[in-house]
Amino acid sequence: MMKTRYFLIPLLLATATLSGCKLGRFVWFNFAGIGDYKIFPARELHGASDPFLFHTAVEEKGPKTIDLGSGAVAFDDFLQQTESVAFLVIRNDSILYERYFDDYDQASIVPSFSMAKSVLSMLIGCAIEDGLIGAVQDPVSRYVPEMAKNGFDKVTIEHLLQMTSGLQFNEGYSNPFGEVATFYYGRRLRKATTKLKLETEPGTRFAYASGNSQVLGLVLDRALGDKTITQYLDEKIWQPIGMEYDATWSIDRKKEGLEKTFCCLNARARDFAKLGRLYLHHGNWEGKQLVPADWVRQSTKVDSTAGSNKRYQYQWWLPTFQGDFLAQGILGQYIYVNPAKNLIIVRLGHKVKANWFNVFINLAKGY
């Protein structure tokens, strides 16, 4: 027993030391999960004093069953089987269907993961409208001069938005030495971002890489000056659309931290739905234009020029080329918007476990 105790002491000390660095946090937490908002420092977003509230339909009009190929399954059972924690269907500002699982409820926080990329895109559009950023054709080096030496004098803001920058970036979340682990668990995000290099010529091909969104975040950070990205979001969108709850955006470190703009906006399902509603109405909220309508159109139109993927525009996914669009995050976080049906669907969960694009498309057909 005594030998075991002496063995455990250095092991625990080593673990404690490791937990203070990127590799240690990767080993300790192992893989991204929807409780990760608890482990990172963050900046606060504030719920409105007079929040916008969706109506609750008198009669539920949600999905009853789903056909998985081997017969119909109750939709509630399907959601549980796919490890969903929240699922909302909203049409004409009325909640037609709302379910929570695994001890989650409407007040439970869930990280956005890459859905934050779509929110970042909103802020870039606002910053251009406000004159803080010149145009999407501006090179990154105009705002982050030290990145010119790595070729970012040829990378434009639009290249980053469309994931056509040619960035050299390992998107694998299971690699503790890859760039994603550095960005997710590391505490020197500005330094790691400015070290990024290019692999291919900008504007020639689409390659999804979270590094694009973090470079965009650094551009926005520089453009904002003394104001943080979280403060800008609070001012331009969070408060004006009447969010019901406070929320947070995770940062890399407490002192002078930088928002993880490729991920990590931590909020509730109903408030995520409001972000979808904002774009459903072309950036207009109750008569006030918060995000330029032209920016929303550009962000959700089909375009395959200059190496762009017609299924992806300005940090939004386009499932059918028929006007619908969605924000997507790892582990299956989604805000799906179908303007033709005036429909918003939010799904949050522990894992993907389904082809959610097809689920949303097929559900929309029933409305």
Automatic annotation (TrEMBL):
SUPFAM superfamilies: beta-lactamase/transpeptidase-like. Residues 77-354 form the Beta-lactamase-related domain. It comes from the Bacteria. Pfam families: Beta-lactamase (PF00144). InterPro entries: Beta-lactam-related, Beta-lactam/transpept-like, Diverse_Enzym_Activities. PROSITE patterns: PROKAR_LIPOPROTEIN. This is CubicO group peptidase, beta-lactamase class C family. It comes from Parapedobacter koreensis. The lineage of its organism: Bacteria, Pseudomonadati, Bacteroidota, Sphingobacteriia, Sphingobacteriales.
